[in-house]
């Protein structure tokens, strides 16, 4: 599809779908619902916030309740019925949705608001043709052209977009794209060259599996004191992370009516684990830092067969004290190598 046709593509989609795409807001690239005159920003490195907020909002009403005649009445929150298209999602962020499905859509428990939006949404991915130096998706099972969680994959090839329908949902969008044609042999070769170049630019050498194995061995090690000493506990890494899913539940009540609200929270905050008794099992920054790393690279691997990190690099890029998770992974792995080295015999 020629780049000049993108506006017509959006308008055609809006006749049937709610279209959410990356747009520029106050010098930030954010995902937002497009209005009748909005055009998405598709030439960007990545959005400031991940698109997970479309399915798992920062604050969300789960249901309303009221006490009438001695009985409690519950009313589910209203959700939009119109199908949606989430456009311009980078492969790392699309893969994060597959991981979040493992949390909110299990065989035993299903989160209704999340699952409804997932079923009602078509994800249009935008291949990552120019990865940042902070990207490391290749080290955690991803790829700049990874198709996980994507229904229709678009690749910027300069003069236009190469479009690949990967699911039936994606195929349904193609008739809305104006003036499409089959790619030429030269264009296919160009896409292959772009793909190879992008893959070569991504960090692939992080010892993630080695770190996962060793995390339990250094659980009580003073290594965590050294790592946590640099952390401010600001939580920016968790709020920017596409796979972090810690939340808090609050009931806002006025007289006999109220709403139950779910809001993002963070495991790096001391109040997150504070119990009613006053006891806090993670009272220090050391314990909270250890929990964050263990959860992403050990616990989730055991429970879901995948590390809950997609290598988007947001936490690396925006940490105010340059606490680089890549360096933490390397340090954990080196701790293991040191532990396995034979000790010198006493003299």
Number of helices: 11
Tally of DSSP β-strands: 10
**Based on CA inertia axes, which overall geometry fits?**
globular
Characterize the biggest β-sheet.
6 strands, mixed
Category from helices, strands and their pairing: alpha/beta
Query: Which range does the strand content fall in?
Result: 15-25%
Can you describe this structure?
The protein is α/β, with parallel strands linked by helices and 347 residues long. The protein has 2 domains: 3-200, no CATH class; 208-340, no CATH class. The protein has helices spanning 6-14, 91-104, 112-119, 168-173, 185-200, 208-214, 223-228, 236-240, 285-304, 314-318, 325-340, and strands at 18-25, 28-33, 59-68, 71-76, 84-89, 121-126, 152-156, 161-165, 247-254, 257-264. The strands form 2 sheets. A 6-stranded mixed sheet has the order 2-1-5-6-7-8. Strands 4-3-10-9 form a 4-stranded antiparallel sheet, with no helix packed on it. Helix 6 (208-214) packs across helix 9 and helix 6 packs across helix 11 (325-340).
Give a short overview.
It is built from 11 helices and 10 strands.
Descriptive tags:
disordered C terminus, single chain, alpha/beta, 11 helices, 6-stranded mixed sheet, 347 residues, 4-stranded antiparallel sheet
SSE topology sketch:
Blueprint: H1 6-14, E1 18-25, E2 28-33, E3 59-68, E4 71-76, E5 84-89, H2 91-104, H3 112-119, E6 121-126, E7 152-156, E8 161-165, H4 168-173, H5 185-200, H6 208-214, H7 223-228, H8 236-240, E9 247-254, E10 257-264, H9 285-304, H10 314-318, H11 325-340
Parallel strand pairs: 1-5, 5-6, 6-7
Antiparallel strand pairs: 1-2, 3-4, 3-10, 7-8, 9-10
């Amino acid at each position: 599809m020629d780049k000049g046709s993108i506006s017509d593509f959006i308008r055609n989609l809006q006749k049937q779908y709610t279209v959410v795409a990356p747009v520029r807001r106050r010098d930030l690239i954010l995902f937002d619902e497009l209005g009748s005159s909005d055009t998405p920003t598709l030439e960007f490195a990545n959005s400031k916030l991940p698109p997970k907020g479309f399915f798992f909002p920062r604050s969300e009403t789960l249901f309303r309740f009221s006490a009438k005649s001695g009985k409690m009445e519950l009313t589910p929150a209203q959700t939009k019925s119109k199908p949606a298209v989430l456009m311009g999602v980078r492969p790392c962020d699309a893969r994060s949705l597959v991981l979040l499905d493992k949390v909110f859509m299990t065989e035993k428990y299903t989160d209704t608001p999340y699952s409804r939006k997932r079923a009602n949404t078509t994800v249009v991915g935008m291949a990552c043709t120019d990865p940042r130096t902070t990207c490391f998706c290749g080290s955690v099972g991803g790829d700049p052209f990874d198709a996980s969680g994507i229904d229709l994959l678009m690749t910027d090839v300069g003069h236009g977009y190469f479009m690949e329908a990967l699911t039936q949902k994606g195929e349904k969008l193609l008739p809305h794209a104006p003036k499409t044609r089959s790619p030429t042999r030269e264009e296919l070769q160009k896409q292959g060259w772009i793909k190879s170049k992008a893959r070569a630019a991504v960090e692939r050498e992080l010892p993630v599996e080695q770190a996962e194995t060793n995390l339990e061995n250094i659980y009580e090690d003073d290594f965590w004191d050294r790592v946590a000493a640099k952390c401010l506990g600001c939580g920016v890494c968790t709020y920017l992370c596409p796979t972090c899913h810690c939340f808090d539940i609050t009931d806002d009540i006025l007289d006999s009516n109220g709403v139950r609200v779910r809001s993002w929270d963070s495991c790096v905050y001391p109040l997150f684990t504070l119990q009613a008794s006053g006891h806090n099992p993670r009272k220090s920054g050391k314990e909270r830092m250890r929990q964050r790393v263990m959860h992403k690279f050990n616990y989730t691997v055991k429970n879901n067969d995948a590390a809950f990190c997609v290598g988007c690099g947001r936490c690396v890029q925006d940490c105010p004290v340059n606490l680089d998770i890549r360096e933490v992974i390397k340090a954990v792995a080196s701790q293991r190598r040191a532990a396995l080295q034979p000790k010198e015999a006493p003299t």
